[in-house]
Structures
1.
Amino acid sequence: MQREARLIRPLARRFSEYDKLAQAASANTYRMERALADFQRLLSGFSDTADRRQMLDWCAEQQHRIHGLKEEFRFNFGAELRSALAGQGFLLVGQFPTLRAGLYTLRLDFDAGSAGIYWGPEVETIRTRVPLASEAITRAVADFDRNLRSPEFHPEGLLALVYQGYQRECLAQHIPDAGRVLLTAVLREVAFLVQTKRFGINPVRGNFRDYSRIQFGFDLFRLKQFECLRAKGRQMHMAVATFDSTTDRAKALWVPDNEQGEGTYYSYLSFAAEGA
C-alpha cells in the first residue's frame, strides 16, 4: 500500500501531461505516445484491481487513437514539408523515410518523431534528432545552407589558398613539383590558412574559425562552377577516388556536381603546368 501510495501522485501528473498534449493531438502525436508509455510504466506498479484494469483499457484505447493519428500525420506531413521547403527554394523529392532536398538528404524516423539531416547522399551528418515538424526541419536546412553560401566567397582568393595549401603539403611530404597530394591533407592546410590574426596570436578554441569538410567540398564545387581552376599558370586537377577509398574519410572527399545532390568522391589534388 505504501509503494502504491508513492506512485499515485506521479501517475496523476503523467495523466495530466497526457491530457494537455491531447488537446492539440495532431501536433503532439509523438509526445503523446511517450507520455502514455510513462503512464503505463507507472501503472504496472499497481496491484491488479478493477480500477487498474479500467485504466489499462483506457491506455489501449489511447494507443489505438495514437496509431490513427500517426497514420494521418504521415499522410499530411509530406505535403507540409514540401510546401515549407519550396518556400525556401528547395525541391523535395523521394519517398519516406528518405527524402532529398537539393544538396541535402532527410531521413525521417516516424517512430521516434525526429529527423536527421545529412550532406549529399548521407555523406556527412549535419544534424540528428530534429523534431519531426516541417517548420523545424526547414529552418535547420535553410540556416545551414545560408551559412554554407557565405557572401564573402571569392573564387580567386579561395583558389590561391588551395594552391598555397597544396604547396605546403608538397613541401612537408617531399612530393615533387606537380605531384599528387591527398585532398584531405590540403583541407587541413586550408583550414589553418583561413584563420584570423587573432587565432595566430592566441590559438584557442574561441578564436578558431571552423572550416569543415562540407564547406571545403562545397567551395570546390563553386570553383568548378566559376571555372576558376588556374593559379599562377597551373591548372588544378582532382583525381576521382577508387571505390574502396570512398568509405575512408581520410582518403576521399565528396564534392557536388550540381545543386540536385549528385556528386563525386575525389582523393587527390594536383596543380600541373598548363599544357603538361
Note: The chain has a mean pLDDT of 92.
2.
Amino acid sequence: MQVGRAGTIAMGLLLCAASLAGAQTGETQSPSSQQLAESHTIAKLSPTNPRRLFVTDVNFPSAQASRTYILDGSTGKVEGMLNQGYWPNFSVAPDGSELYAVDSYWEKHTRGKRSDYLVVRDARTLEVKADVPLPEGRLLVVSKKYDFDVTPDGRYGLTYNLAPSTEVTVTDLKERKPAGSVSIAGCGLVYAQGPNRFSSLCSDGAVLTASFDASGTNLTSSTKKVDGVFDAGNDPAFEHSAWDKKDGKLYLLTYRGNVIPVDLTGEQAVPAKKWSLTTSEERKQGWLPGGWQLSHFHTGKKIFAVLMHQGRFWTQKAAGKEAWIFDAQTGKRTNRIRLQEAATSVALSPDEDPLLYVITESSRIDAYRLATGKRVYRTDPIGVSPLLLTVWGE
C-alpha cells in the first residue's frame, strides 16, 4: 500500500515536470492550453441627425483630460464619447460626416514638448482620420464655441490664437494641412460667414471682418473694421451671442440685455438698430441675460433662446432661472420657459419641433419641448464639468 502511494506521487511529479517543460518549449500539451483568436466588432453611430447632441466636458479638476459626449438628443442616452486635450474646441462638419476637435497635448502629460492639432474624426466610428498640426499653436483659455469655427462650405477650419498678437489660423480641411494665419490685432473670436471670410469682435466695441485667399503658396488677407458697434466700456457684448450662420446675422447680446443685430454677409459688418430683451417693468425687476453658452439660434425658425436671471449689472455669469425665446426678425418674445433647475448653457435642436437643451448647475442635461415648455427628460450628471452644447448645422 505504501509503495503504491509513493508511485502515485512520483507519477504526479513527472506529469507536472512534463507540463512545465512543454510550457517552456512552447509545445502544446492539450486542447485546453491552445490560444483562441479574438474577434470583436466596432459599433457605428447612425448618420448625424438634428437630434444628435454633443456635450463638451472640460473636466475642470484635470482639464488636460477633457472629452466630448455624444447623446441621443431625443432621449438623453449617451451613444459615444471622444477624448480631447487641454481646453478643447469642437465642431461638426456642415455635411455631418466629420467631427473636428482642436486639442493641445504635452509629451509628458503635463510637461514637456507641447503639440497643437486640429483632429479630424469620422462622425460614425469616431476613428481619427487626420491629425493636422497647428504650427503657431492656439489660444489656451476656458473653452468657448467661437474660438473655433468651420466655414459654411466645410473647406476651412478657423482657430483663434494669440501668438503673441491675436490672429486666426486657417486650416485646409480638404487637403488636411495648415494654410496660414490672418492677423486680427485687438480682436478675438471667429464667426465664419463665407467660404473665405470671417468676423471677430474687438476690445474697443468694433467688429472686424477678414477676407482671405489660401489658394496660393502663401495666404493673403484683407480686413475691414467697423467702429462703435457696441459700447465695450458700459455695455459689453457676450461672446456666446446668438449666431445665425446660415444667413450671416449675428445678434449681439449685451450685459444690460440689449440686442444689436449685425449683418455679416458682406466685406464689412453692417449693424442695425438695437432693441431690448426686457420691458421697462422687467428691467426694474432685475431681469438680465447670463450664463456661459447663454444663447443659441434656430436657423430654420429664425428664433433664439437666452438664459435669463434676476440680478444686477456684472452678474453676467449667473445661471439662468428661465429660458426666453425671441423672434429674431421682430424682436418679440414668443415663449418663456421656467427651468426646473438653473442652467449655464443652452441649445436648440435644429428640427421643426425643437427641443431646448440646458446644462444645469448639477451637470445634467435637461430637455424641454419648446412648444409646451414641459421637460421631456433629465439625464444623470454628464462627465465632471460639462460646459458647451453643440448640434448639427449651427
Note: Confidence is low (pLDDT under 50) at residues 1-27.
3.
Amino acid sequence: MPAWSYPVALLAISVLVLGLETAFPWRRQQRRLRANLGSDLLYLIFNGHFLGLALAALAAPTAGRVLNDVTAALGFSDGLNLRFAADWPLALQVVVVLFGLDFVQWCVHVALHRVPVLWTFHQAHHSVVDGEMDFLVAFRFQWTEVVVYRAVQYVPLALMGFATEALFFHAVFGTLIGHLNHANLAWDYGPFRYVLNNPKMHLWHHDYGAKAHEVANFGIIFSCWDYLFRTANVPDHPPHRIGFAGVEAYPRGIFAQAVFPFGAARPRWATVAGVLLIGALASLAVTQ
C-alpha cells in the first residue's frame, strides 16, 4: 500500500466521526473546543502516523535478523520467510487478522491494567476526564505503550506472512471502531454489542470509581472477548465520572506525559525532553 494510504484513511475516518458527534451528541453539554484539544490533535497525528514509521525504521531491520536466525536455528530452512498464511484467500486472511490481532491486543490491554509497571504507561490514556471524551482521545497513548503493542504483535505477523491488504484493512477498521468507541455517541449497536465494542461499553472502561480488579471492557475492536472471559460490565447508565484515582495530579499534555513514567519531576523539563524525543522520532520516520 502507498505510504499515504493510512493517513488519508485516518483523516477520512476522523472527519466522518466528527460529523456523527456533531449530528448525534450524547453529552450535549460537552464543548468541542475543550481542554487539551491541541494535545490530543498532536497525539492523533503522531501516534496515527509518525510513531509507527519511526518504530519500523528503528526496530525492523534488527528484529528481522534476530527472528530469522532463531527460526533458521529451529530447522526452518527459509528462516523468517515461513509465511504460513501467504496462500490463504484474502478474505480468510482478513478474518484471521481481525480476530487474531484483536485477541492479542485484548491480552496486552489486560496486562496494561493488571501489571503495575505497565499501568504507569497506560495512565496517559486514562487521563481523559469529564468533558474530554470524544473521538480524538482514541490516540491518546504514551509512546512506550505503542512500543509494547507493536513488539508483541511483531513475531506472529512476521511469521505468518499476511498480505498487506489484510493488515491495512485491520488498521483502518480498528481505527474506525476506536474512534467510535471514544466518540460522544450513545450507541451500543443493539444485538451486535456482544461482538463489537461500542461507545456505551467503552465509556465504562474509563470509569473513575473502578478499582484495579474491577476495571472491565478491555476490548479493542471486539467485545466478545470480554463476554467470553467475563470481564464485561455495561450498566444501563453512564458512569458518574471518568478518569482514575489520582488523575488530578497527573500531568496534562503530550510532552509531559511522554516522559512522566520515567520520573520527570519538573513539567518544564518534561516538556523540553518530550519535544526532543518526539521530534527525533518524527524526523527519523520522515527520512525513511
Note: The chain is about 55% helix and 0% strand.
4.
Amino acid sequence: MIGGATMKLGLQIVRFDWPGSPGSIRTGLADLAGAAEDAGFDSLWLMDHFFQIPWLGPATDPMLEAYTTLGFLAAVTRRIRLGVLVTGIVYRHPGILIKTATTLDVLSGGRSYFGIGAAWYEREARGLGVPFPPAGQRLEQLEETLQVLRQMWSGESTAYDGKHLHLAEPVSQPAPLARPHPSILIGGEGEAKTLRLVARYADACNFFAGSRSHLQGKLGVLRRHCDEAGRDFDAIERTVLGQLDARTSAADLIATCRRLAQDGIQHYIVSLMEPDGLRRLESIGPQVIGAIGDL
C-alpha cells in the first residue's frame, strides 16, 4: 500500500496491425478490453496519434483516432477506467477537446482520465496539415488549456482571453460525471516546465520506466515544485509507462511492480507490444493482479 492506495496496473493498446486488420479491429479491441477488465486491470489507455510512432512500426501501420475508439471501449466495458496517454495539445482546438473529453466521461459513467501533453510527433502533424508551433509555444498553450479546462469543469462560463486561447463562451454541458472532475494527467518529464504544470494543475503524472535513479530524480523535482506551489505531493497519482512483450513473464511484471511501489509509484501502465496479445493478457494478467494487490 502507498498512501492508503493499492498498487494499480493499467494496459495501453498501441498497435492495431492484427491478423485480418482492419476487419478484425473491432472484435479484437472488444476482446482485449474484456480480458483486461476480467483480469482486474484498473485502467485501459490508448495513444493519441494518427500515424504509428517510429519505434513501434512504420507510419503507415494501422492507427485509430483515440477518442472515437475510447467511446467504443466505454460501450463494451463496465468498470475499467479509460484514458489517452496522452493527448497532444496541437491536435484539437482546446475548447473542442474539453467537450470531447467531457462526452467520454459522461458516456463511460464517470470512468475517464484526461491525459494531456505538449505533443512531440511533428511528422504526423505536418502530414495531416496540423499547425505545430515551437515547443515553448506548445507548453504555453498547454497551460492555457489546463486553465480553461479547470474553468469549464467548474461550471464557470466567463470569457477566457489568454495569449493563445480566446474563448468567448466556454460552456460545456452536460458536466462530467466524475467528481470533482475526471482525473487530469499530464504526461512528460521536463523538469523546468512540465513538472511545474503537474504540480499546479494535475491530479496525476506519468513517467517512462527507467533506472531507479532517473525516476527518483524526477519525483524529487516534482516534490520541489509541489512545495513551491503549496501543493500536497501525495495528492498527485504517480504513474509509470512500461512495456509488456513476449519476453515478459508474470514474475517479471510482479517484480517491476514491487520495485516501483518501493519508489513511490502507485500505478504501472504497460504497453501491449504484440500486435495481438490477447492470449498473453489472459494468461498473466490474473496472476499479476492477484500478487500486486497486497503491495
Note: Residues 135-153 form the longest helix (19 residues).
